[in-house]
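hey m, so remember when u said the tokens were messed up on ur end? i reran from scratch. heres the input so u can diff it against urs
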Amino acid sequence: MTVARSAALFAVAALFEIGGAWLVWQGIREHRGWAWVGAGVVALGLYGVVATFQSDEHFGRILAAYGGVFVAGSIAWGVVADGYRPDRWDVVGAVICLVGMGVIMYAPRGH
């Protein structure tokens, strides 16, 4: 699997997981109703499905690597959906997480 395809899968997974969690948040915390919660639950389930398309056979590695994508994606989602303005430390932390994701997922392992 190419790095580009893998990265695209991580991006789609992030949209489903972060979007699903946001929908649940909106449904409960912002009182938008159970339809929002239900849509969020469906999106969260689809996140799990998308993760299975990564080529690495180790669930733990994929989920750990995805953690870096989740951190950066959550900050980006907050900027777009909620008007959140990250400070430089948020950005530095997200970049560190993405570098860690790259090391975990794409480092040469000799197999």
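this time it looks ok to me. The two ends are 14 Å apart (CA to CA). if urs says something different then somethings off w ur setup not the seq
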